[in-house]
Amino acid sequence: MKIVIGVMGPGDRASKTEIKLACEIGQLIAQNDWILLTGGRNTGVMDAANKGAKAANGLTVGILPSDRSVGISEAVDIAIFTDMGNARNNINVLSSNVIIACGMGAGTASEIALALKANKQVILLNAERESQVFFQKLGANNVFVARTPEQAIDLVKEILSNSPLKDRSPIGMQDS
Amino acid sequence: MKIVIGVMGPGDRASKTEIKLACEIGQLIAQNDWILLTGGRNTGVMDAANKGAKAANGLTVGILPSDRSVGISEAVDIAIFTDMGNARNNINVLSSNVIIACGMGAGTASEIALALKANKQVILLNAERESQVFFQKLGANNVFVARTPEQAIDLVKEILSNSPLKDRSPIGMQDS
Amino acid sequence: MKIVIGVMGPGDRASKTEIKLACEIGQLIAQNDWILLTGGRNTGVMDAANKGAKAANGLTVGILPSDRSVGISEAVDIAIFTDMGNARNNINVLSSNVIIACGMGAGTASEIALALKANKQVILLNAERESQVFFQKLGANNVFVARTPEQAIDLVKEILSNSPLKDRSPIGMQDS
Amino acid sequence: MKIVIGVMGPGDRASKTEIKLACEIGQLIAQNDWILLTGGRNTGVMDAANKGAKAANGLTVGILPSDRSVGISEAVDIAIFTDMGNARNNINVLSSNVIIACGMGAGTASEIALALKANKQVILLNAERESQVFFQKLGANNVFVARTPEQAIDLVKEILSNSPLKDRSPIGMQDS
Lengths: 176, 176, 176, 176
What we know:
- 4 copies of one chain form a homotetramer.
- By secondary structure, the first copy, chain A, is of the alpha/beta class.
- Chain A has helices spanning 16-31, 44-55, 88-94, 106-117, 129-139, 149-160; strands at 4-8, 35-38, 60-64, 78-81, 98-102, 122-125, 143-146.
- In chain A, helix 4 (106-117) links the parallel strand 5 (98-102) and strand 6 (122-125).
- In chain A, helix 1 (16-31) runs parallel beside helix 2 and helix 3 crosses helix 4.
């Protein structure tokens, strides 16, 4: 079974910074031979991460809220059509080995919360202070903070290698 | 179509205060002839709200994560078995006219976020400062704060009557 | 917990006979103090069954495929909005103590099959010979055939009373 | 976007013939550079189709009913964990360009019915007469019958090429 890294983040309301970071994250995920999983839409963080991954010849999976090809990112290789709206957010997190949240919004927040409910590790990238404080209180040792895509990837590697992250102060957690 | 008020909150980790508040909220919902909707399990806020509603002869609907009667609150009249785990959280909020969150946890946070994503109004009861700050930033005018069950009910009435809550400072919003 | 009887059947393509039978079945369900559960839409068997139940002062639950009130039967008391299209068919059958299929169509067939998968009992009303043959082979002792609404209700009572239906030839099974 | 062919069929109750056919179908799907999609479990038709596809160096996607790796076919490359039981059957069919049903059972029947509801084309392989009669009546021009894996693949090619299958008598439809 292949390793799947989920990248979650705002759609239409994504900032330019978030789109740039998502593109970089997608590229790095592909370069590490991991599969990229997103919500699959042709906008914001989802679209940017998929484009980044394809630029590095990665494989991309999109878990769509709809039942057809309207609104799907052109950079999605394998489209899973759920037709279940935002309830598909739970599938996004259950199917990812690690989740990277790039930016924040109501949909993204639901994915982080569902990930923590499922005892999954989440890396917050470009999260504002309020989000860090809230989710680190909510998720305790399962929430990590990265300031750059490279730091996020380092954290993914540590999580995948099952290193005892909880017992020390990992890269990128100083801010939180 | 009857009015449905959703009460969301922690299960096994609910505090005594949260259980007491949930019981009172359930009772008040029944007294207002609204239907109570919860996640339906026999623990924490869900169970207490259902028991409160039944004590006041209310009607209760439980949206269960499982496919059978194991773990269901005895005070649920109508059990909807989804067998879809926490993805059912989206059904909880879509089916409620207004959502009251009593306490906080990963599941509850996912429900608030999904509610805001669906443009629903959410009332936070007994929420800590970090939660208020995070969700009011996330949900802008759709998030309200109540300090008592009575305040929460007053807010429900205002929301249902479609009064222009956004243009004034409603009861219970001072803290946020 | 209240007893819930699910009535499934075609929407837009329902025949006049199916609509008449659905209305009668809804009425009989209400008269037996059971709750009626349907797919909740304002068309065909769903709408007719709900109207029949309301005419007899019953309580009706609709499990909607959508996320809002568009297309919902006026005779639904409690609307559960799933926003998950036909995947909600599984919720319909899991939440019903017994399922009555009135007429046939692709959606109805999926509900019968999902019910049998979940080891639920299904009563076929006004089913054509091919449907009876197919589902009785598929579901063995869990599929029953009724020629009239009254026969269907008698079968529901027998199933609810847990009588050993399998060891004898119940009313209405002669045709199959 | 890659072409995804769904193979559905019995799990534990699959016959030796069905397992053999599923393995061959999986192999042929891979040889045509299509992606294989199944329900992902380590049993019956799902497992056999995945193993066949991997033997031919194909890429396999499994849409699991559960939330973790228990019971997953070793030959699944990309596991989508839905945690929604048989409601995931709707995702299986919505995400497949064409569906091949190999054998019959309650789960398989629900997938065929959901596929027809979504206006998808379904090929029945090794289906008994009753199943052919029932589904061809239900799905009209969207249901095809194949006697061999090779015939099924020929039908997939015709469907994908959008040839006017309805206006002539395609290979393998004589029996129905």
